[in-house]
Amino acid sequence: MPDFRTLDDLDDIAGKRVLVRVDLNVPVKDGKVSDTTRIERVAPTIQELSSKGAKVILMAHFGRPKGKPDPAASLEPIAYAVESVLDHRVHFAKDCIGAPAAEAIAEMTNGDILLLENTRFHEGEEKNDPEFAKALAENGDIYVNDAFSAAHRAHASTEGLAHLLPAYAGRTMQAELEALEKGLGKPAKPVLAIVGGAKVSTKIDLLMNLVKKVDALVIGGGMANTFLAARGTEVGKSLCEHDLAKTAKQIMIEAAESGCALILPVDAVVAREFKAGAESETVEIESVPADAMILDVGAKSVEKVNEWLDRADTVVWNGPLGAFEIEPFDAATVAAAKHAAHRTAEGLLVSVAGGGDTVAALNHAGVAEEFSYVSTAGGAFLEWMEGKKLPGVEALSKTR
Ligand SMILES: Nc1ncnc2c1ncn2[C@@H]1O[C@H](COP(=O)(O)OP(=O)(O)OP(=O)(O)O)[C@@H](O)[C@H]1O
Ligand SMILES: O=C(O)[C@H](O)COP(=O)(O)O
């Protein structure tokens, strides 16, 4: 873990413009933030800086708007959620660089909090373009990165800026790294990983490394469909990235060679529509109807997951086993989460989970508090697990 400066190393910041990278990529349902965990996690950093009289300027991304403005990915509605968690006025600037940002910052008084519009509305963000990073740097005197969950991205606001301004780790960044090191630095074996969710293309590559590190890997959620299809199982209209079949096959081979048990669903809950109350049925995995989609793993699959949870000393979980936001497709995720929480409470399991929707799913199951540690990070958490260096963390290194 690199040696970085923290807020403890920052003194006399009254009146300073502190640019804080936070992760506000939060779950939203019907236009409302449905889980505020990520906001709650960055609140201490924001409150500490604001109470010391800094002008706190928040930078964040939301969704994947492909480098241009997209009203559906605006952070403006999220500003209200931040305001309500902080119980403090949060101003909003309609762009993260240029005149809109400069004008909003010029109006700030000490202790004020301002949220800048989605950094991904500019191509330069994801390209880590030095010119774009420079434009962002013009907004501040000091840079604080509190977005551990976005630290696996070498973007301008997560990496580039650390080279342009005095850089510090925020309280959440610090806490996440310390907790992960403590909980998973040398995990008790056998280690079971559970990976599900919908971000198949961004997570599939890292499974290749993960199977070399863990004793067993449960693949659920949308992720499982790509593996099922790759081995020739019909997945009907399910979320599935058929073009990743080759990678999925290689992962299955790598798992076998590394002695990692790979556990795929043996049954599934299928429906013709992706909506609450849609008619659903549980079928054997080889009998998914061509006009249906898999929206959860079935009860037999959950039994297998629970058996592996009984065997494991450590579980690392990212991504729900099904579309947990819609009943009854939350059943498998809830059942396995409760089982993991129960084993943890008995002192038989170290349970570490990460991911925006994963945290929401554990809250939905009512067991987030019972897990050993819940990280706000998904992809970053998995890459950390793989042993990869995270660019956002590396850039904070004091040696720079
Ligand atoms: N079988 C499925 N079909 C379609 N969507 C699914 C399925 N299983 C899970 N999902 C969806 O996956 C989404 C969560 O996946 P995601 O990969 O974003 O997890 P995450 O915990 O947020 O991780 P990260 O922090 O990396 O984003 C949920 O919205 C859920 O509905
Ligand atoms: O939700 C996340 O995991 C982080 O905010 C990173 O988002 P990204 O996968 O769109 O880069």
UniProtKB/TrEMBL annotation:
Keywords carried by this UniProt record: ATP-binding, Cytoplasm, Glycolysis, Kinase, Nucleotide-binding, Transferase
Lineage: Bacteria, Pseudomonadati, Pseudomonadota, Alphaproteobacteria, Hyphomicrobiales
Pfam families reported for this sequence: PGK
Residues engaged in binding substrate: 23-25, 38, 61-64, 120, 153
Subunit structure: Monomer.
Gene3D superfamilies per record: Phosphoglycerate kinase, N-terminal domain
Pathway info: Carbohydrate degradation; glycolysis; pyruvate from D-glyceraldehyde 3-phosphate: step 2/5
Protein name: Phosphoglycerate kinase
Organism of derivation: Nitratireductor rhodophyticola
